[in-house]
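testing teh design pipeline on a random one, pls ignore if ur not involved
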């Protein structure tokens, strides 16, 4: 019987926003697997390493060159019969490494029902019928726009950024201010619903403006940012100071001159993640990643509804109608990882402060464990789970073992580990870092014992 440990050959996408040449972690990871026959071009941008069974860029078995999809469909036990049957014989998640040099589009990913409708109506622009909740873990410092700001911050910017108020229109701005006044932080369901309606109206009033009007307003906005510095936007809101916002406007204008995204940033939380910090985005949540290297895990889909910072197809009517319009502070966007309880560290690992940290979003398709083994001989033994795993090494070197099979691991190597297989990681370097994405429908998905 085949040992359920398969080294994968994974492809890398070249999108314009990716980091260039060997600056791209995604490119370096792809080039690490010798059988990939991939060499990095110094002037070419490399954006995303894909690990999974998605047909746009499917992973292959290094040894046999068969696709991972073929292997798991031939042997359903590799994923477990329950998961294989539930997800149509495909890996439930898509695992990625992203290297971001400039802003990605302002976007959201549709929920399952909307994804089915969009795919049926426009399969060219919406190639999947699946939802796409996603989780982001920073492996270098990262920044992005994620989720709507608290309403008091938005009203502050309407009052202190004249070009924003002018673009929206005085009537629309006043209607919003009056609608949410006194109940910006109300916890009642009725007030929250009314606030969301008001937010949808004022956001739609702005993002539907024609390009020439936006471009003219953007000139005024950039001029204010350049001139006012730390006093820009009334000195900023509680989350971001004036200089930080002014610098952000100028930086993004250098990438997408005169774009509507320059105004969208006043509606969205500007989030910074340090290495190891993470955030989770539900389907229908608005966001735009701006810079950094990240590990990303999502339901297996490639659906994107865009509305700014992009030359690609934009679908503003769909975006404005689909968003949740949930508003919350930055702290609510970030996840709270916990120690992963189903791993045993040996004495060397324990004494060197090695760790295995669980990032566990509120969905069943995926969770991720980040393991850092400090020092040669540090070892982590993961208990078997009833589902598939994909392991990516991002730093250092060591080995991975399943049953009698042991393989060398170094930065960029990717492995599939089948269901019900105990997995052992062992370091032979000063610091050996891996990320393990997995799916298990019950039992060990959550650190508190709930699934």
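output:
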């Amino acid at each position: 019987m085949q040992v359920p440990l398969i080294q994968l050959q994974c492809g890398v996408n070249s999108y314009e926003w990716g980091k260039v040449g060997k600056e791209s972690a995604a490119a370096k990871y792809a080039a690490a697997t010798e059988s990939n026959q991939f060499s990095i071009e110094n002037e070419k941008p490399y954006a995303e390493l894909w690990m999974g069974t998605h047909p746009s860029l499917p992973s292959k078995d290094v040894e046999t060159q068969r696709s991972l999809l073929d292997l798991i469909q031939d042997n359903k036990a590799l994923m477990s019969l329950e998961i294989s049957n539930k997800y149509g014989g495909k890996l439930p998640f898509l695992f990625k490494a992203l290297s971001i040099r400039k802003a990605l589009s302002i976007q959201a990913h549709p929920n399952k029902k909307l994804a089915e409708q969009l795919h049926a109506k426009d399969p060219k622009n919406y190639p999947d019928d699946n939802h796409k909740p996603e989780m982001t873990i920073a492996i270098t410092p990262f920044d992005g726009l994620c989720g709507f700001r608290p309403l008091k911050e938005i009203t502050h910017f309407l009052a202190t950024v004249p070009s924003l108020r002018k673009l929206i229109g005085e009537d629309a701005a006043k209607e919003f201010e009056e609608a949410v006044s006194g109940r910006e932080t109300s916890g009642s369901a009725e007030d929250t619903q009314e606030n969301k309606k008001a937010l949808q109206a004022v956001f739609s009033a702005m993002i539907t403006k024609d390009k020439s009007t936006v471009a003219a307003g953007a000139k005024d906005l950039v001029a204010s940012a350049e001139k006012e510095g730390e006093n820009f936007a009334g000195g900023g809101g509680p989350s971001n100071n004036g200089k930080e916002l002014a610098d952000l406007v100028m930086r993004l204008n250098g990438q997408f001159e005169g774009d509507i995204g320059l105004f969208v940033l006043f509606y969205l939380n500007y989030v910074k993640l340090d290495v190891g910090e993470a955030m989770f985005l539900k389907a229908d949540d608005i966001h735009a990643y701006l810079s950094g290297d990240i590990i990303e895990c999502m339901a297996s889909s490639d659906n994107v509804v865009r509305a700014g910072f992009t030359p690609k197809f934009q679908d503003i009517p769909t975006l404005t109608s689909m968003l949740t319009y949930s508003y919350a502070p930055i702290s609510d966007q970030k996840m709270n990882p916990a120690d992963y309880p189903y791993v045993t560290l040996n004495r060397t690992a324990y004494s060197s402060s090695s760790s295995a940290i669980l990032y566990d979003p509120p969905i069943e398709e995926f969770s991720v464990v980040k393991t850092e083994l400090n020092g040669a001989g540090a070892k982590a033994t993961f208990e078997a789970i009833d589902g598939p795993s994909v392991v990516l090494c991002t730093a250092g070197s060591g080995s991975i073992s399943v049953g009698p099979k042991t393989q060398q691991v170094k930065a960029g190597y990717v492995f599939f580990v089948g269901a019900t297989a105990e997995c052992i990681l062992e370091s032979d370097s000063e610091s050996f870092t891996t990320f393990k994405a997995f799916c298990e429908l019950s039992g060990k998905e959550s650190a508190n014992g709930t699934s």
